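## retry 2 of 3
previous attempt timed out at serialization; input unchanged, resubmitting
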Amino acid sequence: MKLSLRLYTVVACVQVLLFISIGNAERSNKRIILTSNATPREKHGENYCAMYDICGARSDGKIVNCPFGSTSVKPDDLLSSKIQSLCPTISGNICCTEAQFDTLRSQVQQAIPFLVGCPACLRNFLNLFCELSCSPNQSQFINVTSISRMKNNLTVDGIDYYITDTFGEGLFESCKDVKFGTTNSRAIEFVGNGAKNFKEWFAFIGIKAGLQIPGSPYAINFRSDADVSVGMKPMNVTTYSCGGTSLGCSCGDCPSAPVCSSSAPQPLHEKGSCSVRIGTFKVRCIEVSVAMVYTLLASLFLWWGLLHKRKERNPTLRTNSSMNVTKSGHVQQVQGKKDENITMQMLEDNPQITSAVQISVVQGYMAKVFRLYGTWVARNPVLVLSSSLAVVLFLGLGLVRFKVETRPEKLWVGHGSRAAEEKQYFDSHLAPFYRIEQLLLATKPQGAHLKPPTIVTEENIKLLFEIQEKVDGIRANYTGSLVSLTDICMKPLGEACATQSILQYFKMDLKNYDDFGGVEHAEYCFQHYSSDENCMSAFKGPLEPSTSLGGFSGNNYSEASAFIITYPVNNANDKESNETKKAVAWEKAFIQLVEDELLPMVESKNLTLSYSSESSIEEELKRESSADAVTILISYLVMFAYISLALGDTPRFTSFYISSKVLLGLSGVILVMLSVIASVGFFSAIGVKSTLIIMEVIPFLVLAVGVDNMCILVHAVKRQQVELPLEGRISNALAEVGPSITLASLSEVLAFAVGSFIPMPACRVFSMFAANYLKSTGYSLGLPSAAFVALIVFDFLRSEHQRVDCFPCIRVSGSLADADQGNDQRKYGLLTRYMKEVHAPILGVWWVKLLVISVFAALSLASIALCTRIQPGLEQKIVLPRDSYLQGYFNNVSEYLRIGPPLYFVVKNYNYSSESGQTNQLCSINNCDSNSLLNEISKASLVPTSSYIAKPAASWLDDFLVWVSPEAFGCCRKFTNETYCPPDDQPPCCSSSDGSCTVNGVCKDCTTCFRHSDLQNDRPTTLQFKEKLPWFLAALPSADCAKGGRGAYTNSVELNGFEDGVIPASSFRTYHTPLNKQVDFVNSMRAAREFSSRVSDSLKIEVFPYSVFYMFFEQYLDIWKTALTSLAIATGAVFVVCLVITCSVWSSGIIVLVLVMILVDLLGVMAVLDIQLNAVSVVNLVMSVGISVEFCVHITHAFLVSSGDRDQRTKESLATMGASVFSGITITKLVGVIVLCFSRTEIFVVYYFQMYLALVLLGFLHGLIFLPVVLSMFGPPSRRVLAERKDDNKFCASPSL
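## retry succeeded, writing output
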């Protein structure tokens, strides 16, 4: 609104100035025309006027000059001094009356506030009109070309104004970059209609204005080709450079000044990735480096492989040894016998020799504990089950406090976030950023590769009026009262809503559509929005087309393919306040209206409509909480079906009803569900809210991990000798697999524990829930595992007693079942036979080993090269359900918007006292420091590609300093009683023709607040600043003074406590460039922070940037550092756990190597699938450390305790644990992952289905192909040794690496 007033003022000022000059010219022309006997020298010469005095006024009140020439006159001393104060280039005789000069002065006062910040521009601008109106040599460069009659008087109707190009160029160069801070634009947009050169500016000034339209009442034709033969001589007074020393301007208004250009930021070239051209291909340097490294390593490895193979074929190079134990119990080598060749017969024939496993102290202790624990559970299964259920029920009571967090700022912004603290500071000290309700109406392309047609048509504009009428008619019910848009909308000047829509060009009134000229008027306003009163909005401000139109290129607004309608709504700090609740109620009604009425209306016109409200994301997240309930249910059902098959014996028709494990599988799935309930109940009880990620992903996670352990436990029990009693088989099985399960689960717990330190709350809580569950289920002593062991006991008892699965009360005859059961106990399964007879032998071939190592190394190195392509961020539309209406909205915002988010630079504790000097460190008008904050912002806006700052900042400080300046004599004024006096066009000082004004004449007594002598170096003193700042912030902008601060700066300054000489908080608004990609948001925030940090250090003033999106993107500034640190800690924790449990650096190192390769390959997959790096993917990466351990640790542990050479031990470990890893780990996770692809929410498809699927496949490939090959070539020595049997039947061995 302030802008529109200023616009109007500027246009009026320029036009009036022209018409005054014209008036003088008219009189001169008239004289030329009427005095035919006068010589050309009389008409055009020194001390001769072309037009003098006033001969009439138009119906709109604009005065017109007489077209008669005369000799210049000598003014009296008072008039001379008045003219000198405004026009110092004019002295002596003049060609204007006092009335003409007063008109000139009143009109230029409207333009002065726009230009006063740059003295050189203002002086040149005033000289243009001073010479036109009052120059004693007026006739030399003014020629009246046409006259008209007005009330029987001849008046000037058109003139030629001869000006040198030198003057025109100097004027334009001094003014072209002068800022108009209130609108973050240039003053030339208002006083010159955005002219690109002085000729365009003069053409705009010379337009004859229609009635009631600001501008000149005469046509002015600016020319430079004066006819010197008749005494004409172009006006060419000296122009002042904005970079000069006498009337120099600030760097913000004159970036070309030498002092500014030397310090101006150079455009930062985007860091192009290093590349190398190979023929016609351009390859990045990192890719070339990786290829070179791989070539070198592969060559060395192949050379070593061939050399090693040759040595193996040479018998003289082979050694043969085995291990024995001395009488003292220490391990020694026994020549001629290999432990892998020891048979049971040899052990029977040599009672003093036995085959034993040399294990670490920790493993020995764990095996002993697990053996005792298995025995106890097998003997007390009822007690274990009962106690487990009791604990679950107790923890489940916490669900009474169960809550789901859906507020975006609570999900994605970490505690202690700098951006969150800055937002809180901004909201509490200034004002919360307004709520945004938005509609995007767009045309559809008429062909696959065709541009969409323009939306600026009469039919579409009238449709927009219909839509607006329905929006205005919304009445939302809040606690019995009706809420409309006018009740909650933002009203900067307290009059009309500041709706951003092209309907503002018609004052939001359909009746004005035809009266103003329809589509042509709209297109006219696209170019004259800041210079035509009829284009001003209903809220009294100019509407920039880029805020209400979209899908255009450059400034071709008429080609726009989208209308953007934005409803700014007042916001409140307290989210539970009535103001906020009223806004939310209206927003819900708004969305309902769009879906029920507006969408069908728009679609019937073959247009598209996307929409959003401030509360849309939160509401859609709430809806999402139930969107994937079916997915979760299917996940459980699929897992249940698989586990029932995986746990059972080989299907056989004669005994399938006995050997199947359907009831055991169902019970296991129920245990998983109960464990989830217990975990969620525990955290709910202590006040931790759940999230949608927990509700959807935790079930999958616990199913995958829980089923893994179930399969491994059942297979371990089935591998035991059937002759042993059941409790013996249970205890042996736990002793066998318990340590490896504990190792894997402890690694997962630690990995998730690391994830709980991720700043993003949603991911931190997810990690806490997962770690808590894994802590209970991962260790075999945990709640679900203990209960499942008890269930295994019951199931095996059922099977041994020939009871039917699922119907244990039914018992069948035992002959067939016994035979089949005995066979199953001793017969290898199909998968086990495959691992032992096919898989292991193939991997044992030497050239296959070399190929496997080479291929996996190539994949890892390629992934390292691809990692650099991963971008930080998290697309908003990925977080939402696929069918959310916000999906289309976010797509259209990126496609159509041509302006970026608002950016505020907030200054803390600005000391405005004269002694501090901080005013000049902040401002950007004349006499401000060249490196001031606002000057630096202006410089940064010159390189938007690197600074992401689109415009100079709107500066309340600059406008205030101009407002109190004596040159802006229409702004800061006071009555004789020292109270505030408004501009002449505001009540009570406006014209008596306005019924709202009082006619008491007191405004004639108003004077400017200060004379130059009252100021200190053209700056207000501390007392003056303190007294006049509230006046400025309360002053309404108008034509006579466009610099009033009300509306534009109402919330830009905190006045609480400012009387002490310090303003606690103030802000300067600008805009980011359009940000379409996540990386743009991240880089813009980084650039703004780096800029603020540099300026703060330079000025010793605390400055920080703020934009509404900062707190959601802050995490991405250091996301790579967070990711790598977390992964390093998690990997280190796994290494420590492996080392402590196995006491083998060798085996621990191999496990960590495989983990790192899986992680690197997973990052490569992320790059290929274009998965961004964010807190969700970081948690997944950290979690993959723990999950990947399961693919490695069981086979590595089996390799350690098996006997034979490396190839034989690899074969045995694959036969023993390969099937369990494949069926119990790979397939279970794969089944659970595949279900997630049916999720309705993209985040689960991208970050859980795709990433988990890649993790499972990579884990399978590395665990069952790469790891066995590495172990067969570089594996640690066996822990199985030949030892003497002591009398006390004790075996003692030292841990081995």
